[in-house]
Amino acid sequence: MSDQAAKLLVASNRGPVSYRLTDTHPRTLEAKRGGGGLVSGLSAIGSDAAALWVCAALGDGDREAVARGVGEPGVRMIAIDPEVQADAYNGIANSVLWFVHHMLYQTPLEPSFGPEFRRQWAHYEAYNQAFAETLAAEAAPGAAVIVQDYHLSLVPGLLRELRGDLRIGHFSHTPWAPTDYFRLLPDDVARQLLRGMLGADRLGFLTRRWADAFTACCTDLLGPDALDGTETGVHGLGADAGFLRERAHRPDVDERIAALREQIGGPDRRTVVRVDRTELSKNIVRGLQAYRLLLETRPEWRERVVHLAFAYPSRQDLAVYRDYMTEVSRVADEINSTYGTPGWTPVVLHLEDDFARSLASYRIADVALVNPVRDGMNLVAKEVPVLSDDGCALVLSREAGAAAELSDDALMVNPYDISATAEALHQALSMPAAERTARTERLAAAATSLPPQRWFLDQLNALRGPAT
Ligand code: G6P
User: Fold this and answer.
1) What distance in Å separates the CA atoms of residue 458 and residue 451, rounded to the nearest whole number?
2) Contact 90 CB / ligand 1 (< 6 Å)
3) Do 46 and 109 fall into the same domain?
4) Tens of pLDDT along 367-426?
5) How many folded domains does the chain comprise?
6) Any idea what the CATH number is for the domain that residue 253 is in?
7) Measured in angstroms, how far is the CA atom of residue 410 from the centroid of ligand 1?
8) From ligand 1's centre to the CA of 55, what distance in Å?
9) Which in 2, 106, 220, 272 has the greatest CB count within 10 A?
10) From the CB of 101, is ligand 1 less than 6 Å away?
11) Could you tell me if 217 and 267 lie in one domain?
12) Is residue 114 in a domain?
């Protein structure tokens, strides 16, 4: 155990900061701070010196930072053998577990679990072991540890073996697969994953639906007593209204709004906005197809609407994610060449990540399209109503976790049903202003009912239990 042992630890694959090596001579390190629910959530405990965030060094810059001893207070980055990491992160976490929980396998992407999978799985175990050992070394006696997500499913069990004194929690940011789908995994691996998670005192999920799916898998694969000793809880992470409103009214966002308005063209044009990391669960291609169908079947919208589609690169080491990005661009180009006119670009597609531009689009959107085939929560659906300047109609997939809280005032769709999605876009675009404003207000209230700080503290208090 180190001298300054931590009383609260968070572990996640991706940490709150990443490093980039500059092209200068000598090469220096540039730190980039990330955002997201966990970063905001942890801010609730203030600058507590006894808190530590353990994360992986993900790129060359991060590795160099670890080698040079560069780091942030309260963050411990671990550099794991690159081959082990590639297999654990790209191979198991983002190719297998992500696909299982989001039910993304389809011909020709059916899984085959052979020797390559077994090698990757051994590396996933090693990856989880490295995290467990670091946490065990850094935690004060009786400390609380909250482990995040599917990259680290085995950590609770492994850590429990090393440190029986800790209070261990795990939180899943993804959906959980239905038991029949989860059973695509080799039996021993499926059981090992569940047992790994059950090493925790408490397991958190974003919705009741995902918590119930996990419980069903445990009962089915491990028997009716599997959950004895582990509590499950539901914490539906909400939007961080304070942060978002302040950030979205800075000058750089106003500049982006002006630039977007120029791309949209005429002042009377409506905008349909979507913002996603580009990966298959987000269902961007079907979203574009629905928009194309709208233009085809409702010609009155031609020249009168622009689709702002921001599809930011994600997990580009993997061919399946890269190919999806190519397909998104292809379909967008096709729509533009079929319907575009000299003064009107039907789809404005942006592929470079730009947070200020995303916020700008939330402020001016008339309609937001959030149509994942499956999603743990989807914060875009919650952030748009909070930031909308003039009210925004939300077209939302019933398969997003956010549907549990937003279905009363969003226009709900089956994400596979392109025709229904096109019709929902039409309804959203046609919604009277007063109705749109009233719905947006109710959506914003529902979206902010559990802000990240409370989301985190609720989990922590539940994990620590009543003070003795
Ligand atoms: C999802 C996962 C997170 C992950 C994020 C970005 O939201 O639940 O754990 O960090 O995607 O994916 P990446 O692979 O870039 O970390």
Assistant:
1) 11
2) no
3) yes
4) 999 999 999 999 999 999 999 999 999 999 999 999 999 999 999 999 999 999 999 999
5) 2
6) 3.40.50.2000
7) 25
8) 13
9) 272
10) no
11) no
12) yes
